[in-house]
Each structure stands twice: as structure tokens, then as C-alpha cells.
# Entry
Amino acid sequence: MRIKGITYDIGTPTVDGSVTRPDLAAATIERELATIAGELHCTAVRITGDDPARLRLAGRAAVGLGLAVWISPMVPNADETATLATLEAAAEVAGELHRAGGDVTLVVGCELSVFLTGLVPGDSISARLASLTDPTGWPPEFLAAGPPPARLNAFLATAAATARRHFAGPVTYAAGLWEDVDWTPFDLVAVDAYRDAANADTLRTDLEALRRHGKPVVAAEFGCATFTGAAAHGSAAWMLVDRSDGTRRPRPGLVRDEAAQAAELTSLLDLLTTAGLAGAFVFTYITPAYPTADDPAADLDTVGYGLVRSWPDGRTTPKAAFTAVARAYAAPRAG
# Structure
């Protein structure tokens, strides 16, 4: 693969109203991106978040390290107006980096059928995920407004046009595998290529089929959580959080298993390479919103996707998956 990437969160709103990285110093951004470029052997980084100043800061640091930069604004649970406003601000940042000589791609959104309000019934991300599994229960007004795929593609066309007003480089969208996207407005096909129990036998075929669009195909995300059996849950493992007593903790019965995470990421990198993808972005470098702990009952990193553990005191330590990805990206077969 030409693009050996990882996602890097600079602060994203969460389902409980907080922010994944409320405090993030410039020195921390520079240090973590240096690790991504040097120790992980990445050639690209997908920077996610909603703060234009942080996107600019991280983008400049990444360009300075020789990384290709994918600017990916994220505003989960926002409406169309707020989503387009955040995209426009991010497009201005991407345009600045591109005009300064950076290798920059702009991602106009991510799995918007779930993260954008109004396309699918539900006031929350979890409610919209449930609606997608059973469209028979949708209120009539959602169907009267037109087929959801058509409405999604109409919004994506508007988003692409908004992006191109400020940015002259390549533009794409990070689609869910279930979304029927019209890729005409975009320069690359990008999908979140998580494997789980439902698509384990078909993922490679599904990805190979995307080459029919005649554009490079990239896995905008792929990843695995850190417990035994996490591979079967794919992108949904992050929801296995027990909030019954008001304190977030992994659901009882989950067993921390760094080797399982490392093995699944290695296997997925092999699959994405043999499927002929132009590149891929591991999800994710760090997940401070899922802090680790010595007590297994309190170790939220068990359901986290990070390659490093985030300790409450700010320390980070690499996991087995960090070594696995570094080894794969350094090997000639991944190049």
C-alpha cells in the first residue's frame, strides 16, 4: 500500500457532551506525531477533530515531519448547518496547508447516516444505529422526505462543493460499508473497513468491488479493541461500557488481550493489501477518553482501539498492537 496511515484525534465531541481531548498542548501534538512518523513508520496521518486551530497546528506539524495529511473534521450528532460550518473552517485549514506545499487530502465527513442528525431517525448515535438495523419502524416523515441514500448523497454533493471553495486538493468521504455513496464528486473512494462477525467472510470481496468506481480505494479506518473476542465486534466494541452505577467501566466478563488486538490488526493489514487498496488508516493512535487502569474492572482501554494506553496522569505506554503495526508498516510488503 502506498498510504500507510493512522488516525490521530485532536479533540472530538463525545456522546456524553464532553470532548475526547479537552487539554492538548502543542508539545504533546508534536511529540505524538513524531512517534507516528518515526517509530510507527507511517507515511500519512488522518487528523480528526472539530477545532480549526488544533487542526492547523497538527497539520503543520505533520507536514513538517513529511507526513501526508488527511484533514477530517468530526462533529458527531450535529445537524447539517453545523456540520457544513465545521467543514468550511476545516477546508480553509486544508487550503492553507496545501498552498504551503503539503500533501493534503480533505475528508468531508464520516459515516454521516449515523453521525449527522436528520437523515435517519434517532436523537443519538446509538438510536440511529438501531434505526439502521430496522427501517420498518421509521416515522413516515423520514420516508416522505425521500430515500435516505438520495438525501445522504445530496448532502455529500453540497459538502464536496463547500470543500472545493477553499481547497484545491483531493477530497473524499469516509463512508460506512452500509452506505450507498455516489462517488462522482470525490477524488478517492474511502470506507471505514472494520471487520466483524457479520462480514468476516465478505469484507475482502466488498472492498475489491469498490475498485469499479475507477478511483483509488482507501480504508479511512480499520481497527480492533483490546479484549479477547474483540475482532467479532469490529467497530462496535467501544459501546461495551457499563454505566449502571454512574461510573464508566468495561462490561463485566471482558478480558484484556493485547495479543488479540495485535493479531487482528496484522491480519487486517494483510487483507487490505491483498485487496489492492491504495492505503489504510489504523484506528487509532490514542484514546484518552478510554483511560487505562491497573484494576481490570476499571480499565476502559480494554474496549479502546488505541495503539497506546492512556493513563489518568497523562502517561502513555505502547501496546502490543503498536509493535505489530510498526513492524507491518516497516516491512517491504506493506510499502
In short: The CA atoms of residues 59 and 69 lie 7 Å apart.
